[in-house]
């Protein structure tokens, strides 16, 4: 428990201060810039408040619910770590406010797993008690000399976190050039197949599907509110993902207010979304014009997507076709989408 006034002074003097709280088997690193003292004072009615960081092992009910979610969503996956609730709250008298949305600041928390884990078939997950579902969260696995593994989770909100062992592949990707990428992101609960046993790597990917992939990849909590596009049915499976991606500024629609969720996404549209996603996390990208000039069809890349294509190409996330062209209007396949997402996540150090 820390006095708010002390944190405010420290944040003013050194805005990049990060306070790390450690317990047996877990830690939480709180950047002071996510503590909005003015907003908290307004909510609590006073600037004399305290901040509490809690790192608690989940109770038996939450543990059972997490195991049920793993069984129903993943089948053969197993829990590899305790389920831990990380929370931050501000208190003044009898009033309390949860700090649960850190914007684009990814806060680190670490769970020490008492086993050697292979990051190719293990993933950090968040459990949402409201929906009863688990989903991927960005995390880096670091093996320790004592035979344990530190799993450092990066996310811009709080909840229940754990690690699962999960391995997934599909019958139709044997020998495919993107097999290792597809296996990796499927095992990490980011991508799913067109059926339980097929991935359809050559099929084009829709704008709605890519919106879902990018929100999953960044570990974004579902945004509340109305769907802003006139052609996105609020009850459609992708409505939450599109609303969440739009609120984070990762996707945009067309001038007529539509999103065209079922339309296949083009390579230039995908580059634009990936560039926005990387910048959303706070990483800087550089649009090197020389990189753009290397594509034989650079002149045909529209002005609106040139910077994004240059940024993503300079980062090594997107490459040209074998003939040296970029092919901005070409439809992206499911396999291409997965390999670009994998490179994006590794560039952000969101996966090993």
From TrEMBL:
Matching InterPro entries: Cell_Envelope_Struct_Comp, SLH_dom
Any matching Pfam family: SLH
Superkingdom, taxonomy of origin: Bacteria
Chain ranges of the SLH domain: 165-224, 225-288, 292-352
Name recorded for this polypeptide: SLH domain-containing protein
Originating organism: Paenibacillus odorifer
């Amino acid at each position: 428990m820390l006095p708010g006034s002390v944190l405010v002074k420290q944040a003013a003097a050194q805005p990049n201060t990060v306070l790390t709280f450690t317990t047996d088997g877990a830690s939480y690193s709180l950047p002071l810039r996510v503590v909005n003292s003015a907003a908290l004072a307004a909510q609590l009615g006073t600037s004399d408040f305290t901040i509490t960081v809690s790192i608690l092992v989940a109770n038996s009910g939450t543990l059972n619910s997490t195991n049920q979610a793993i069984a129903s969503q993943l089948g053969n996956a197993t829990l590899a770590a305790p389920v831990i609730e990380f929370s931050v709250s501000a208190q003044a008298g009898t009033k309390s406010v949860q700090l649960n949305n850190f914007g684009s600041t990814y806060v680190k928390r670490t769970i020490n797993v008492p086993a050697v884990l292979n990051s190719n078939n293990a993933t950090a997950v968040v459990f949402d008690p409201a929906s009863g579902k688990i989903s991927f969260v960005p995390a880096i696995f670091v093996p320790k000399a004592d035979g344990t593994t530190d799993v450092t989770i990066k996310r811009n909100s709080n909840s229940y976190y754990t690690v699962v062992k999960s391995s997934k592949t599909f019958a139709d990707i044997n020998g495919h050039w993107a097999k290792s990428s597809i296996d990796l992101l499927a095992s990490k609960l980011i991508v799913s197949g067109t059926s339980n046993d097929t991935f359809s790597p050559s099929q084009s990917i829709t704008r709605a599907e890519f919106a879902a992939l990018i929100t999953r990849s960044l570990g974004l909590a579902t945004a509340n509110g109305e769907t802003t596009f006139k052609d996105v049915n609020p009850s459609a499976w992708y409505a939450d993902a599109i609303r969440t991606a739009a609120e984070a500024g990762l996707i945009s629609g067309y001038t007529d207010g539509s999103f065209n969720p079922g339309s296949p996404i083009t390579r230039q549209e995908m580059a634009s979304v990936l560039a926005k996603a990387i910048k959303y996390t706070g990483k800087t990208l550089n649009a090197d014009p020389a990189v753009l000039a290397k594509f034989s069809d650079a002149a045909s890349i529209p002005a609106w997507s040139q910077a994004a294509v240059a940024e993503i190409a300079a980062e090594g996330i997107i490459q040209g076709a074998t003939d040296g062209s970029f092919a901005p209007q070409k439809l992206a396949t499911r396999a291409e989408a997965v390999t670009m997402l994998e490179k994006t996540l590794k560039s952000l150090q969101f996966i090993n």
